[in-house]
Every structure is written in structure tokens, then in C-alpha cells.
Design brief:
Elements lengths: L13 E2 L1 E6 L5 E6 L2 E5 L4 E6 L4 H9 L1 E6 L5 H9 L7 H5 L3 E3 L6 E3 L4 E12 L4 E12 L12 H4 L3 E3 L4 E3 L18
Antiparallel strand pairs: 1-11, 2-3, 2-6, 4-5, 5-10, 6-9, 7-8, 9-10, 11-12
Length: 190
């Protein structure tokens, strides 16, 4: 029997994404966002939700751009730090030793040490309450060449993305492959 937990943000897992923007003074900044995902195939888009009081929020709204750097498991401590302190008071890149790189297609920085990067142009923002959901049209995806499966698709087993479990507040890695998508269910087709 299932027990009702009421309305809560307990969908598993959520991403550990470093959302990059330049602040009002042109300094690179990144914050960790767990509320996000792909939202459209054509045009390719993703969403991230950010609280309006966050330092990153103003930079995204000002420049109409942001990046998403997918955190690898090996940099969990650095990612956690990006979510613990504000870029208003701390140069997060100097503190962690991470390297900001100017986006090629949008006016926002990404993190060089994170193997998978998505450059986004802000096309919509929606005030939802505590957070504003930002829809970014994907202008480019960059991946470390040694993390590609077939020279065009990131390999989850090589990227080793970090994921987050809301509620319990723990970071996790992905498990083994359990089935091939759009194939395993064919056993039920008649």
C-alpha cells in the first residue's frame, strides 16, 4: 500500500546542473539547480527554475542567456559548494578552482571541467511562485570528445552525471543500463 506524502518536490532523480551567467558587472557566476529538464524537441529547449532573489537570476534576465554544465560525480564537492554560497559575496570559480569559459553561442559562461555543456538563449520565463521557470532554446551542446559514444552522443557511462534526491538531500550516480529505450517494450506489441 502506498502512503500519501502530500504535495512535495519528491520526484527522483533531479539533475545537478551548474547554471552559468554573467552578473551585472560582467563577472562569471554559476549556481546549482536541481529543478530542470528537457521541455521541447523542436526547437530544442530545456528549463531551469531559479528563485528571483538568487544572484544568477539577474544575470540571466539581463543577458537573456544561460548555460547548463552537467556535473560529473567526481566533482560533487565543487558542485555542492556552488549551491551553498552566493556569487554576490564569493567568487565561486576562484574558491573551487573551476574554470569559467565564455559561451560560443550565448552571452554566458560554462564550466570547463564539467564534461557536458548546453548553451541556451532565454526565450520565456514564467513566475511560478517561489521559483521562476526559465525556458532556454538550446543553441549548442558541447561534450568532451572522450565522453562521446559514437562521436555525436554523450555516453552516460563516461559523463557519469551526478543526480540529486530531493527530500533526503543526497547525491547519487546513475546505475547500470537496464534496457534499450524504444526496444524493451516491443515484447508487448502484437
Amino acid at each position: 500500500m502506498k502512503k500519501s506524502l502530500g504535495p512535495a518536490t519528491l520526484a527522483f532523480p533531479t539533475p545537478v546542473w551548474a547554471v552559468g551567467s554573467y552578473d551585472e558587472d560582467g563577472r562569471p557566476n554559476a549556481m546549482i539547480a536541481a529543478w530542470g529538464g528537457i521541455c521541447c524537441s523542436q526547437p530544442p529547449c530545456l528549463t531551469v527554475s531559479v528563485r528571483p532573489g538568487r544572484h544568477t537570476f539577474a544575470g540571466i534576465m539581463l543577458r537573456k542567456a544561460f548555460t547548463v554544465s552537467v556535473c560529473p560525480q567526481s566533482l560533487a564537492a565543487e558542485a555542492d559548494f556552488l549551491g551553498l554560497v552566493s556569487g554576490r559575496k564569493t567568487d565561486k570559480f576562484a574558491a573551487t578552482g573551476l574554470t569559467p569559459v565564455r559561451g560560443e553561442h550565448v552571452d554566458a559562461p560554462y564550466i570547463d571541467e564539467f564534461p557536458l555543456v548546453v548553451e541556451c538563449a532565454l526565450i520565456h520565463s514564467y513566475d511560478l511562485g517561489a521559483h521562476t521557470m526559465m525556458v532556454g532554446e538550446i543553441k549548442d551542446v558541447k561534450c568532451d570528445a572522450d565522453k562521446l559514444l559514437d562521436d555525436k552522443h554523450p555516453d552516460p557511462a563516461r559523463v557519469l552525471p551526478l543526480v540529486y534526491a530531493p527530500g533526503v538531500g543526497t547525491y547519487h550516480g546513475l546505475g547500470p543500463v537496464v534496457a534499450k529505450g524504444f526496444h524493451a517494450g516491443k515484447t508487448f506489441m502484437k
